[in-house]
Structure formats: C-alpha cells, structure tokens
Design a protein that fits this description.
- This protein has six helices and five strands.
- The protein is α+β, with helices and mostly antiparallel strands.
- It has a five-stranded mixed sheet with strand order 3-2-1-4-5.
- Strand 2 and strand 3 form a beta hairpin.
- Helix 1 crosses helix 6.
- The longest helix is centred in the C-terminal third of the chain and has 14 residues.
- The relative contact order is 0.21.
Length: 130
C-alpha cells in the first residue's frame, strides 16, 4: 500500500478507530492533524501531499488526502524518505523532530505535550498500516 495514498489514509483512520490504546490515550484530543510530505518533483509530488486526520476524543472522524498547502490545527512535515524511515520504525518521531527531520509547521510542541501518549499511538498505528 502506497504511503499517503487515499487507500492508506482510509486504512489508517479505520485502524485508529479500532485501537483501544489510541482511544484511551487520545480521549481529550480535539482537532485536526496533517502529516505532510514536502514537495518533491522527483518523487512525483510537485506540490507535496498530506493526510489530514479529523481527530476527536479518541476517534478518527474522517480523513482526506490533500495536495499542496493544507489547513489543520497541527501540521507535521518531512520529505518522503524521512516519513518512510519513521513509519518503518527506523527513526523515532521525537528524535526526528529534535533533529529537524520532522518539522512542526503549524501548532506548538507545548500544545502537543499533553498528548505525548496519543502521538505515540498515532505513530504505532501508522506503522501497522505501513
């Protein structure tokens, strides 16, 4: 299944909804999260692409794949190779954020901090889909 495709995004949302660990960890999360791949014409992504998740109290209420710029409460961006490393378990997201491989383009780390466990579950579930 191709990362950041419509099929992958739908499977991700469904797996989040089936995850009791995510539901518990994200019980108070309200807002949208975009996982965005930076533009890269050599990868067939001239405008970039994002998976935008509508997250609400431990549920994924919806998901869409958006080309180009994206609107979301939180936007995390990286090149495709970095996302592949994260989703294949070869690079931890926190390490990637601290080293600048993943970049929080919208939202703040302070606002995300209370949801650290939910963020870990988001990554764990994404790895299952990938």
């Amino acid at each position: 299944m191709q990362l950041f495709s419509e099929t992958w995004a739908q499977a991700y949302c469904q797996k989040l909804n089936a995850s009791e660990a995510y539901q518990k960890a994200a019980a108070t999360w309200e807002g949208s999260l975009a996982l965005r791949v930076r533009p890269d014409p050599s990868q067939g992504l001239p405008q970039g692409v994002a998976v935008v998740l509508d997250l609400w109290h431990g549920a994924c209420r919806g998901v869409e794949v958006v080309e180009g710029e994206v609107e979301a409460d939180f936007v995390i961006e990286a090149d495709l190779a970095t996302w592949q490393e994260v989703l294949e378990g070869r690079l931890e997201p926190l390490t990637a954020l601290m080293r600048g491989f993943l970049e929080l383009k919208r939202g703040s780390l302070a606002a995300l901090a209370p949801y650290a466990q939910a963020a870990q579950e988001l990554v764990r579930v994404a790895r299952e889909v990938a």
